Amino acid sequence: MSTPDIRPTQSANQRRSQRVLLAVPLLISGRGVNGTPFTEHTKTLVVNAHGALLQLLEPVGEGQTLSLRNVVTGEEAVCNVVDLNRNSNGVLEIGVEFAQPNPRFWRVSFPPADWSARSPEAKRYASSLSTAPPAKNPAVKK
Asked: What is the DSSP string of 41-108?
């Protein structure tokens, strides 16, 4: 499932990959703005083939290098902070981009860049779902 633009900008129509709402547990490590090392558990809010949006309590700076560890797979990736914003609760939301391309890090198959919900394939899939008979639940007795 892709998400609408979270922070609309002029370049919103020029995305390199689709965004997907996905909560992946992460262990983030790096150096805080004061230079002291930190490690923090968090999870992603949104992912794409090039990085993610996540919440972080530790103050970091734009351009800063962080290490992400996917808690489920144990895989690690280096990323750079590319966006900083505080949400309505005052929690820091940061956008990170992989230092090296790593589209398989999230274990998600992203649709091609030219994919659209209005594409003929998407319409065929949606119409097949609406005409399919409802699935039977063996636990429910009539």
From this structure: EEEEEEEETTEEEEEESS---TT-EEEEEETTT--EEEEEEEEEEE-TTS-EEEEEEESS--TTTT--
Give me 50's structure tokens: 């090039």
For 96-109, what is each residue's pLDDT tens digit? 999 998 879 999 87
Q: Cα–Cα distance between 125 and 100 in angstroms, integer?
A: 34
Closest CA to 70 of 45, 105, 38: 105
Whether the predicted model's global pTM rises above the 0.85 cut:
no
Q: Going from the N-terminus, what domains does the chain have, and what CATH number goes with each? A: 10-130 (2.40.10.220)
Which of 15-24, 76-85, 87-96 is predicted most confidently?
A: 76-85
Report yes or no: 3 and 111 within 8 Å, Cβ to Cβ.
no
pLDDT digits (tens, 9 = 90+) for 22-52: 999 999 999 988 889 999 999 999 999 899 9
- Up-side HSE of residue 137: CA atoms within 13 Å toward CB? 4
Q: Give the integer Cα–Cα distance in Å for 22 and 2.
A: 10
